[in-house]
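Reviewers of the previous submission asked for a worked example of the structure-prediction workflow described in the proposal, so we include one complete record here. The input consisted solely of the amino acid sequence. No template or homolog information was supplied to the procedure at any stage.
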Amino acid sequence: MHIFIDESGIHKKMDHSSFALVYIEIDNFEKIEKGIIEIERELNIEKFHWSEIAWKFKEKFIKEALKLDFKVKLAIIKNPVNPAKELERILSHMAIEKKISCIYIDGKKSKWYGLKIKKVLRDRGVSARKVKMIKDDQIACVRLADMVAGLSRSHFDKKNEKNLQKYYKKLERKLIILMQ
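From that input alone, the workflow returned the following structure tokens.
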């Protein structure tokens, strides 16, 4: 099993400061990886990133990506006093699997973010060798986690609600855990 961790909004300084933390479980890594790359190729985009893609491409990407076989653990935290502490608290409840091949963390994040996640995972018995900070252009499944984080946070922040509602409903079928 491969795990992909991403978040949306943890470093946000304006508006309210809710953030979404996603934990994606993938059993057939190669198949999902090829699926994401194929979706991007069909959309003629180099790589998907929630904050950098126009809505028409987001919508098509979401529609196709939700057909892939993956599971999601999702936490939505509204107005955290200490985001680092909340991240640690939440992740300790998410990382419970025993047969983890590798855990990938989006490498674009700040150093404290990566170190905090690695610490929590080590405390849960996950070998440090299994935890990798990677950039989203290295492994396509990281972009899947980015999509789930962006979609989830936008849904809970009620942004573009009319368009996102149907896709979030489909995402709910993949949820194992939802923490609020």
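The CA atoms of residues 158 and 173 lie 20 Å apart. We consider this example representative of the routine output the project will generate in years two and three.
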